[in-house]
């Protein structure tokens, strides 16, 4: 039955990872104000991200889905994996283009912080494919990749959506090293990476005309209000997305619309914002073939396939071994 093929485990942090309180203390109390992007993803934020993927303007997930659909069979054959481990699996919707080519006995390990989304997508997958086992992992991959994968069988790590881009290059290299620690000779990494392109296309993708990205960005203030007993007025801040050409990255900000004070109850602190003052909420790096190689090679990966959608919305899937 489906129950025997579905398990969910909680993954405790393998190492201490800064709490929201620590990160707010470190990043928000004084300018330049910034917050780690991972706090977007409470249940509401995870759903808003799914909605972003359905907008006209946010091309990466559509491009990635198209690459997975077109090349899914060949990728699965090249990976030849018994264990498919997906970091930040979300709804697993795009991964279906791979899973539909899975050999019987394949085990899919979706790893995500959003338990509700993980449970419902895992249930859907085992119901649809009788040859598939799903072992969902609930946790934060920033706290390490010490995962209960059995020794037996080839592995492939899937890190899709371009999420590696949220790390600064030096952190990305460390994280790729951790991924490599999960893999043995012959195992693979399938990485989604958004490409450097015209700033206008990028800025539109991160400030979509339906306003979903704006709602997603502002949602982090709701997270702070709830978790830290803060009193951010969501109408007092607006969404900004700027492409930094030098650093080859989108930077998202929340900009204070006026001079205002914000109380953070659990820190017993009051923040003073000037009009126009910004909080940086996300970095999303864009890659060239050269920068991808420069990131992957020192981590011990060799690029085996580089699949890219056409301009103006270039997006790549990298199969590395
Ligand atoms: C899920 C991190 C890949 O950076 O494109 C989408 C998140 N932020 N729109 C990205 C996001 C604004 C997304 N990642």
TrEMBL record:
<feature type="domain" description="Histidine-specific methyltransferase SAM-dependent">
    <location>
        <begin position="21"/>
        <end position="320"/>
    </location>
</feature>
<dbReference type="InterPro" id="IPR029063">
    <property type="entry name" value="SAM-dependent_MTases_sf"/>
</dbReference>
<dbReference type="InterPro" id="IPR035094">
    <property type="entry name" value="EgtD"/>
</dbReference>
<dbReference type="GO" id="GO:0008168">
    <property type="term" value="F:methyltransferase activity"/>
</dbReference>
<dbReference type="GO" id="GO:0032259">
    <property type="term" value="P:methylation"/>
</dbReference>
<protein>
    <submittedName>
        <fullName>L-histidine N(Alpha)-methyltransferase</fullName>
    </submittedName>
</protein>
<dbReference type="InterPro" id="IPR019257">
    <property type="entry name" value="MeTrfase_dom"/>
</dbReference>
<dbReference type="InterPro" id="IPR017804">
    <property type="entry name" value="MeTrfase_EgtD-like"/>
</dbReference>
<keyword id="KW-0489">Methyltransferase</keyword>
<dbReference type="Pfam" id="PF10017">
    <property type="entry name" value="Methyltransf_33"/>
</dbReference>
<keyword id="KW-0808">Transferase</keyword>
<dbReference type="InterPro" id="IPR051128">
    <property type="entry name" value="EgtD_Methyltrsf_superfamily"/>
</dbReference>
């Amino acid at each position: 039955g489906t129950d025997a093929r579905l398990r969910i485990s909680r993954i405790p942090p393998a190492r201490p990872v800064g709490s929201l309180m620590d990160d707010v203390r470190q990043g928000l109390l004084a300018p330049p104000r910034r917050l780690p992007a991972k706090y977007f993803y409470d249940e509401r934020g995870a759903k808003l991200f799914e909605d972003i993927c359905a907008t006209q303007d946010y091309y990466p997930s559509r491009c990635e889905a198209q690459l997975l659909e077109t090349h899914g069979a060949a990728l699965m054959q090249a990976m030849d994996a018994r264990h498919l481990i997906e970091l930040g699996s979300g709804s697993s919707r795009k991964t279906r283009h791979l899973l539909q080519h899975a050999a019987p006995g394949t085990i899919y390990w979706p790893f995500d912080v959003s338990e509700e989304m993980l449970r419902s997508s895992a249930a859907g997958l085992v119901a649809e494919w009788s040859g598939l086992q799903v072992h969902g992992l609930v946790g934060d991959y920033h706290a390490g990749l010490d995962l209960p994968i059995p020794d037996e069988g080839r592995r492939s790590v899937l890190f899709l959506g371009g999420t590696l881009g949220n790390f600064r290059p030096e952190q990305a290299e460390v994280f790729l090293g951790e991924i490599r620690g999960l893999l043995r000779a012959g195992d693979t990494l399938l990485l989604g990476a958004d490409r450097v392109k015209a700033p206008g296309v990028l800025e539109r993708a991160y400030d979509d005309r339906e306003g979903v990205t704006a709602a997603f960005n502002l949602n982090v203030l709701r997270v702070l209000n709830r978790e830290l007993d803060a009193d951010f007025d969501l109408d007092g801040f607006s969404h900004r997305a700027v492409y930094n050409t030098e650093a080859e990255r989108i930077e998202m900000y929340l900009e204070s619309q006026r001079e205002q004070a914000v109380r953070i109850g659990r820190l017993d602190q009051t923040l003073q914002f000037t009009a126009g003052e910004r909080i940086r909420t996300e970095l999303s790096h864009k890659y060239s073939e050269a920068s991808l190689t420069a990131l992957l090679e020192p981590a011990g990966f060799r690029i085996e396939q580089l699949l890219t959608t056409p301009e103006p919305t270039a997006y790549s899937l990298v199969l590395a071994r």
